Description:
The complex is a heterotrimer. Chain A is an alpha/beta fold. Chain A is 15% helix and 25% strand. In chain A, the strands form 2 sheets. Chain A has a 4-stranded mixed β-sheet. A two-stranded parallel sheet of chain A has the order 5-6. Chain B is of the alpha+beta class. In chain B, a hairpin with a 4-residue loop joins β2 and β3. The termini of chain B are far apart. Chain C is α+β, with helices and mostly antiparallel strands. In chain C, a hairpin with a 4-residue loop joins β7 and β8. The radius of gyration of chain C is 20 Å and the shape is globular. The chains are: A alpha/beta, B alpha+beta, C alpha+beta. The interface between A and B is small, with 5 and 8 residues.
Amino acid sequence: MDEKTYSENSADKPVEQPKAVLETRQIQAGSLKGEILLLKDQGYRFVTITCVDLDQESVDLIYTFDRGLEMVHLRIRQPKAESAPSVSDILFAAFLVENEIQDQFGICFDGLVLDFQNRLYLEEEVARTPFCRYNVTRNSK
Amino acid sequence: MFKITPMTATVIKNLFTRKSTRPYPHVVREPFELARGELYIDINDCIFCSICERKCPSQCISVDKKKGLWTCDPFACVYCGICMGVCPTRCLHHKKTWRPVATEREMISMQGTPPKAKKKSSAGKEPEGM
Amino acid sequence: MSKTIIPFGPQHPVLPEPIHLSLTLEDEIVVEALPALGYVHRGLEKLCEIRDINQMIQVVERVCGICSKIHAQCFCLGLEKMMNVEPPPRAEYLRVVWSELHRIHSHLLWLGLFADSFGFEALFYQLWKIRERVMDINEATAGNRVIISVNVLGGVRRDLSAEQVRWITSQLNMVEQELKDLQSTILDDYTIRSRTVGKGILTREKAYELGAVGPTLRGSGVAQDCRQLGSSALKHLEFQPVVEQDGDSFARNKVRFLETLQSISLVRQALKGLPKGEIKTKFKGSPEGEAVSRVEQPRGELFYYFKANGTKNLERLRIRTPTFANIPPLAAMLPGIELADVPVIVLSIDPCISCTER
């Protein structure tokens, strides 16, 4: 194809690049609340949770905290079939993002203080999880 | 005591000066030199490479190389000017003014001559897909 | 006393965008406010899987119309960080010029809407008349009025000529003069003070703990502004975050007003120090790995997370917009206030719901 020569900003040609690394601390789901309380004592505040679809079985949950414009990331690997621990009882600000993840990825959070029951963005008749590459089907609780 | 703030002065001044709004569309402001308005194509310069089709963020352009047809959905166009920048023959342009308000959805469809000689007769044969 | 539940929104005369609140009232006093979203959810984050990284710039600009430039800048900064691309100095200064212009027009829009929320129509018209000058600057320099799409990966798309720089400076002088004429009204007027002072108080501790961002946070006395990170040319420019201690609607109003003046000064500084040279470097290849980036939007801190796998599409893009972070503080602000004050207080966090739901 002769078109390639014209494309100025070609994202299609792979160039060797070092992989960008985000500094995160891998922890176990069980020790999550303890770690968060520890960070909270040090004056960190909650920024957000990011859910990343990994494969058929699991997702990554990245918890981001901030203190004076310096960020800390905690990462847990969460199996899709199990429910994740909710941190909204110690960090009220997390309830919205946990509901969002529940909507988009179908991960259930245990002990969510304000549970929208998968109806934050989605309509009642929707049974799919729109942000997953491999769909998770919801069973009625 | 009641005192006149600068805003009160402005408001009173507004009563005696020209209106800030204009009765559009009877009075239209002069367009700016660099404004990006309606998209149009000089179809005679087009080589139907379909780079604009692939680079358009809203995917509003479709190019048919065989028929020599360039179609743009002006309701999906976001006036970003990306296509204008990537076009190898610089045949895409933005007018300085916006498209006038329309009551019906209408595609911009331009019939040109496809690049290869073997299909030259198609320009007359193919009906235009308006 | 029996409790009444009143639905507030999604359609409400004072709301620019659809948020729904279920207000539980006791007599006229709110005891609980539950937010509900989902009226303008579009799923733009998911689009990164079918649009390539260059096209995504135009997509993220549409996450929020009013601060489109800053969304695109955050996106570009993140990918440039991943690929170790440094935009040329002139591009960095131009980015600051346009993003501060965006902040000015966004704050002016909000100040107008805020005045409108308690019925001060004359002030609303004045502020929007001033805003029109900034919109004209956007159109004359970048080509579009609101979604100006000047960012590309590795720089900016348009340059400013010396003549345009002079014109922008003279226009901004007028904007500043007109704004200063309104200063005594916005900061001292009896009607404004009686509707906002002491209403919707968010204490410093609460604001910090609940993750408030932007003017909502700074109105509560925390001097945190993502521009302090010094991204783009901000490290060469002089500014101090605007902070107010009271944490009420009036403090947030004051922070936004003073920030508008501060942004005018930042644009001036950036235009003065505008270095000569290229406006774009080559951005080649596809990113791989993970990164985060954040910038200060008019509404607060904007957070992007990127995951890429070496193809021209991103694997995951996560956008945490400022209003998303400001909704829990809003829910904490509302209990204890009168129903008639709810619209003003909801507006005081500058809610941008299409941002929030993306």
